[in-house]
Design the sequence.
């Protein structure tokens, strides 16, 4: 009898270990098997210009990546509500920089904490932050081999509300995680950059930082804080205002295109109406009905144009 009990205990332990070891793969499989909610698709179509700029095939891949990310990432509200809009904006922030890497997963991302608004820096030595007037809008910190991200809900929403201001705190913080994939946040994203581009990237980065410090660049001055912040800031610029980045900093744009394996300028130019401008027009309307003319200028009703695309893409 004791022998049988021992075998039963051993079997239970092994089963528990198996369930633990395969939890991530099971969550991924279950997420991929689910239908993408129509309500989620509409949120993305009405708030995320990057999503609108994708082809139908790319939209499907983006949606699947969203499902996997949300199934495997804890997103917790701290004194604020976290609804589907917030969760989808976090997922979009995470996936936009790595969309060129179809199998990418953020290792050791323990949790994303959503706080109501900016908060004050309290003797925090962590440099992986985005301060504004003595406050923080986002941060990434390590604790027991896990990364914990904190994001201002107000700033997260603003980053997607204005897709032309070159600022998106969600993309900024996830750029830090991409940078850190090689083990250190230093502005040299070795996991993304091919080895032969590391030296050219380092040279361009130092030259651009010097120009910012000399007041001869329109890049956000915060980029000159250090190399890590430079990479995060120009990543925001690259995805929000790619045409201006290419015009003003062609070598930097080329290197980022090769690092991210994406060309956002070319993607936006595929459309007669810039998705960023379209969303801006949509948001500026006090009320927008299904039968109203679509603000993209197609002449069709909204329900037959972009809303229809959002529901069927």
Sequence:
């Amino acid at each position: 009898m004791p022998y049988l009990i021992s075998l039963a205990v051993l079997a239970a332990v092994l089963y528990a270990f198996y369930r633990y070891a395969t939890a991530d793969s099971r969550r991924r499989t279950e997420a991929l098997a689910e239908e993408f909610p129509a309500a989620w698709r509409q949120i993305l179509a009405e708030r995320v210009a990057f999503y609108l700029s994708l082809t139908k095939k790319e939209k499907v891949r983006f949606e699947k990546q969203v499902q996997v990310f949300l199934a495997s990432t804890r997103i917790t509200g701290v004194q604020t509500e976290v609804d589907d809009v917030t969760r989808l904006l976090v997922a979009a922030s995470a996936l936009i920089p790595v969309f060129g890497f179809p199998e990418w997963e953020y290792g050791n991302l323990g949790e994303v904490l959503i706080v109501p608004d900016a908060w004050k820096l309290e003797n925090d030595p962590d440099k992986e932050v985005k301060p504004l007037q003595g406050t923080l809008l986002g941060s990434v910190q390590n604790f027991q081999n896990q990364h914990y991200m904190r994001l201002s809900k107000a700033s997260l929403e603003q980053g997607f509300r204005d897709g032309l201001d070159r600022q998106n705190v969600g993309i900024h913080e996830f750029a830090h995680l991409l940078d850190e994939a090689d083990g250190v946040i230093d502005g040299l994203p070795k996991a993304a950059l091919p080895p032969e581009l590391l030296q050219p990237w380092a040279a361009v980065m130092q030259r651009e930082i010097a120009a910012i410090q000399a007041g001869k660049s329109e890049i956000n001055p915060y980029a000159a804080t250090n190399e890590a912040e430079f990479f995060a800031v120009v990543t925001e610029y690259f995805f929000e205002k790619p045409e201006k980045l290419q015009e003003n900093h062609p070598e930097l744009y080329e290197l980022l295109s090769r690092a991210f394996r994406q060309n956002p300028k070319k993607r936006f130019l595929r459309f007669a109406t810039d998705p960023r401008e379209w969303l801006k027009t949509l948001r500026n309307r006090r009320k927008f009905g299904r039968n109203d003319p679509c603000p993209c200028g197609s002449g069709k009703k909204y329900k037959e144009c972009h809303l229809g695309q959002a529901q069927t893409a």
